[in-house]
Specification:
alpha+beta; Deoxyribonuclease I, Chain A; nine-stranded mixed beta sheet; seven-stranded mixed beta sheet
Length: about 350
Amino acid sequence: MLSNYINMKKLKYIVLFLALSAVSTTTVLGQKNTEKKDLQIRTIAFYNLENLFDTIDDPKKNDDEFTPKGTNSYTSAVYKDKLEKLARVISEIGADLSKNSPVVIGVCEIENRSVLEDLVKTGPLKDKRWGIVHYDSQDSRGIDVALLYQEKYFKPVNHKTYELPLYEEGKRYYTRDQLLVTGYLDGELMHFIVNHWPSRRGGEAASRPSREKAAALNVQIIEDIRRTDPKAKIISMGDLNDDPINSSLKKILKTEDERKKVKDGGIYNPFEEMFQRGLNTLGYRDNINLFDQIFFTSPLLTSTNDYSTYRFYKAGIYNPSYVINKEGQYKGYPYRSYSFSTYAGGYSDHFSVYIHLIRELK
């Protein structure tokens, strides 16, 4: 069975968690002295929402199966139930430590902006003020990526999309854009990239070059940011359709699996160690993979006791028991919404992933 995991690395603090009103803090006790500091925790997350379509037939998109008369019998009741289930998961990601929903969450497999507007008005999400950054892409399936954020904590100042031009037998085909959102998290400048890389259609080896090109586009975005801010804190997240050990990450992005290996300007992927331990975020055709990942640039790491600005603390896969299939052929896999064109009543065919950032409370 897939099990929940939080990447525990040795810190130079013993962490004691306190919930103080609406602000989550951590009391930190240094090893070399008795000085106490309060640290604030923020959760950054990513979630593949598994075909979050509305019920309306859009002639410009390949959405016929997600309509009341389509093969999936996608009715208003099904849509409402799916929204409620996704809202529950999102509201709880990382909340055990941060005492709050993610302040920033990237999502993929959404049809349009309106489904996100419906989502943030649903269940436990509706009491928070959410902002949405979304662009329509030319993806052949009609699905996009987007960024949701709590307006109280994150203030975007710029956002744009990057197309990923791909060709098959000399003909252009379309996939998801990569979304870059730059803004201030509690007054501190951050950059977020949201991804949904090309699928493994035709097999892993045959489709590998497309994901390597997606990784190369990530490198380009990161380099563009670093030209004006060499110490930029950049967080890239998404459903990569590759595991952390695949060439797109190790060869192109040159991600590292241990903090101590990350040099200045390098990229740390805490989900590689999880994968090596056998942890996963999805199962497909009897294979289990960890396609959903969050990786980030070296300024978010620290080897000192300096937490005056946001630093990485922990990473995890959010898979409480209610999002796991309990029986049958796919026992232990994510409890998905659809199975063989029948609404299964689940959540998503992917588990969500997250990281915690911490800094001294100001």
